Amino acid sequence: MTADHVEPPPGRAPRPPARSRSGAAGSTFLGLPGAPRDVGQVRQERSFRAAARDALADDQLRRNLRRATGTIRDRRANVVHEVPDWAQLRAAGAAIKDDVLANLDTYLVRLEEQVTARGGQVHWARDAVEANEIVTGLVLAAGASEVVKVKSMATQEIGLNEALERAGVAAWETDLAELIVQLGHDRPSHILVPAIHRNRTEIRDIFAAEMGAAGRAPDPGLTDDPAALAETARLHLREKFLRAEVAVSGANFAVAETGTIAVLESEGNGRMCLTLPRVLITVMGLEKIVPTWRDLEVFLQLLPRSSTGERMNPYTSTWAGVTPGDGPREFHLVLLDNGRTATLADPDGRAALRCIRCSACLNVCPVYERTGGHAYGSVYPGPIGAVLSPQLTGVADNPDLPFASTLCGACLDVCPVAIDIPSMLVHLRSRVVDAKDARHPVPTPEAAAMRTLAWVMRDPRRWSWALRTGTFGRFLGVPGRRRLRRLPPPLSAWTSSRDLPKPPRESFRDWWARYGPVSAGPGEPGGSDG
Amino acid sequence: MRVALFTTCLVDGLVPDVGRACARLLERLGVELEVPAAQTCCGQMHVNTGYPREAVPLVRRYVEAFEGYDAVVVPSGSCAGAVRHQHADLARRAGDHELLAAVEKVAARTYELSEFLVDVLGVTDVGAYYPHRVTYHPTCHSLRLLRVGDRPLRLLRAVEGLELVHLPRADSCCGFGGTFALKNREVSTAMLADKIDEVHDTDAAVCTAGDSSCLLHIGGGLSRARSRVRTVHLAEILASTR
After folding, report:
1. A23 CB within 8 Å of a chain B CB
2. CB of B69 closer than 8 Å to CB of B133
3. What is the percent of chain A with per-residue pLDDT over 90, rounded to a whole number?
4. How many CB atoms lie within 10 A of CB A347?
5. Structure confidence by residue, pLDDT tens digits, A248-294
6. What is the pLDDT of residues B105-145, one digit of tens each?
7. Which is nearest to A182 in space by CA: A192, A171, A166?
8. Tens of pLDDT along A151-201?
9. Distance between CA B119 and CA B111 in Å, rounded?
10. B133-239: which CATH architecture?
């Protein structure tokens, strides 16, 4: 401990984790509390389809996204393929995270002991509301009216900036892309590149219009030259770094054996926030632990190659507690649950907690490439967001997200910790269906159709009959047409943009029954169009 | 070797030409093919739409129809993928250990068409003739679930008269995704539009793939765009002769 002993945090008293909730959960879903409503940003406010429709209508957005995701995708592929033991690294990453999740209670307590022994203070936050209360209290206790922030998903998840604002505290984002998002009164649309939806001309316009009100204004003649934009941001931010008394960060990793926190960033803004202010507050999802420094080594290889497509991360800051005469004099670590224990209790969902927020899955996702991140309504967009957001909130609050995927599998291929996102989406879909079933006494039309079809298909006689009487196809038939262009609902959703071949006169099974194996005979070249 | 064809519900009911092509092709290669009448559907649509319990009887049906065979050939990467990657999990969740044991045996003997030709029969030149410019779309489940790799391409390269052209961004999804095409039709259509542009960039006359579902989607988009490019299942190309 340093001489500057810190005040106990306001709000609720720190408490140990409820051990029965973590570790070896039973095979049944326990229905633990998720992320609370009306705070933070992990919920869709409107349907994915409606939000996606708006995004698709924005040609500029689609061009920006296609170019940006394509560039990062290629860069990642190049630096991953050059690593001969990538498969082993990936398996190690998954295994380490699984060990952490299976023994989270032990590791969390070890982390707390180590952080405390090195002069830091650990706070346990059950959810977003509690975490916001703790951080706000700490900032006010430090007598600060503003904080500088290192880019952090956890603080966006809980809506910390808004909570601080309500308490009269200004929170300044110092990551360049987060700054663009904040000045543009916008929302991040990507985990790693939050302003991926903006091109440089849009950024110039945002700087010119908004920067002056937030601090140092840009030169009146600011162009959209990337170097000029970066220099403008640098000067604007420098003022804030030098003035701020309190910094707030997230954490990429926390090493339990030494109580060390690691933040990886690319701009040096993080290093400024982590070293200059007097008080440092780190908000960390409680799954971010790695047991030892040897384990950290695996992730320091996996993360930069997967996220930015770099061989090594540019700025890696690590610290444990406080060091007299060097860096912050107060360090607070806020351990955030906010639906994570509930996720851990779900055998089909817990692998989502392996995620290291690299965003490789976003960059390869064909759906994300068309819609961008805003359509997902959560700070966690893309494939992992479609899993993680409903896991944190419960499926009732994010019912569309599990369906926002073609299950093409590109996300699983690139995931550095091998999260089987497609299978998890499929499990979540059944949960959405079950939740709807429980709410509606009468089955939804979809459920009725699915059950009827399953009933027909479980018996080959019924299925043959259905094919023969045309239940499967002929009702689609418009006489005399080779292609069907307009069908009634629900198939109108297909024919809104796609033709369908006219159903055949005879099913394959009937043809086979008539001609059998011997008469398959030689075929004509050309085939038919499908 | 007793070989059965799992036609798949889609081919059985909507594109029987693909089933006929499989029958012609396999018989030409000396396979005594059987088509068990007890078969219906792999259940993937139910699972992927959120109705796994409804799929369990379909898993049982699949096992009953095919457990007596040495190999089951499927003209669909997606349906073969469902058998190999979903059936065991469904049986396990249903708590049916007998079914699970049976599923594991049958699934291990279930092959997508190009896998069966290359790995089981050991052929790449199937004696086909198809004088057209063709581009190949590797469907997502063939590519990433089954990892059929270049087997379809090796088969296509050996076809006499066939000019194979590379499809740009071939590994990106066409946007079908089963009920995704209906539930999120705008995004699905945006993906399809890009796929169609890429197919047109190849100047091919034919777009082929190992899945009728994806081909229905791509073909439906091509037809709507009044394109002259046709979609033809891999089996139909390989079944074609002089």
Report:
1. no
2. no
3. 78
4. 13
5. 999 999 999 999 999 999 999 999 999 999 999 999 999 999 999 99
6. 999 999 999 999 999 999 999 999 999 999 999 999 999 99
7. A171
8. 999 999 999 999 999 999 999 999 999 999 999 999 998 988 888 888 999
9. 9
10. 3-Layer(aba) Sandwich (3.40)
d(CA B39, CA A230): 63
ipTM, 2 dp: 0.97
> If DSSP codes are grouped into helix, strand and coil, which group holds residue A405?
coil
Question: Measured between beta carbons, which residues in chain A are less than 8 angstroms from residue B19?
Answer: 508, 511-512
3-state secondary structure B176-206: CCCCHHHHCHHHHHHHHHHHHHHHHHCCCCE
For A205, A401, A406, A412, A432, the CA distances from A424, given in Å and listed in that order, are: 41, 12, 13, 11, 12
Q: For the residues A495-521, what does the mean pLDDT come to?
A: 83
The whole-angstrom distance between residue A18's C-alpha and the CA centroid of its chain comes to 26
SS3 state of residue B8? coil
- State the span(s) of chain B assigned CATH 3.40.50: 133-239
Determine, for residues A410 and B171 on separate chains, whether the beta-carbon distance falls below 8 Å.
yes
**Nearest Cα residue to A187 out of A47, A276, A317, A195:** A195
Please check whether residue B144 is in contact with residue B77, taking contact to mean a CB–CB distance below 8 angstroms. no
Query: What one-letter code names the amino acid at A378?
Result: S
Task: Say if the Cβ atoms of A460 and B40 lie within 8 Å.
Answer: yes
Please give the structure tokens belonging to residue A134: 């703790």
Contact between B96 and B39 (Cβ < 8 Å): no
Cα separation of the two ends of chain A: 73
Chain A, nearest residue to B19 by Cα: A508
Cα distance from A383 to chain B (closest Cα, Å)? 14
CA distance B58 to B43: 6
Chosen for mutation from B147, B187, B226, B240 (greatest number of chain A CBs closer than 10 Å) is B187
Contact with chain B for residue A447, Cβ under 8 A: yes
Whether residue B39 and residue A404 make contact (CB cut-off 8 A), yes or no, is no
Q: 32-71 in A: which are within 8 Å (CB) of B?
A: 48-49, 52-53, 56, 62
CA distance A422 to A406: 9
Find the distance separating the first CA and the last CA of chain B, reported in whole Å.
Answer: 29
* pLDDT at A475 > cutoff 60: no
Q: What's the rounded Cα separation, in Å, for the pair A351 and A469?
A: 46
Identity of the amino acid at A57: A
Residue A464 Cα, gap to closest chain B Cα (Å): 9
Q: What is the pLDDT of residues B185-218, one digit of tens each?
A: 999 999 999 999 999 999 999 999 999 999 999 9
- How far is it, in rounded angstroms, from Cα A516 to Cα B196? 37
Q: Which distant-in-sequence residues (6+ apart) come within 8 Å of A252 by Cβ?
A: A262, A263, A264, A288, A299, A303, A356, A357
pLDDT above 50: residue A529 = no
- Check B219 against A501: CB less than 8 A apart: yes
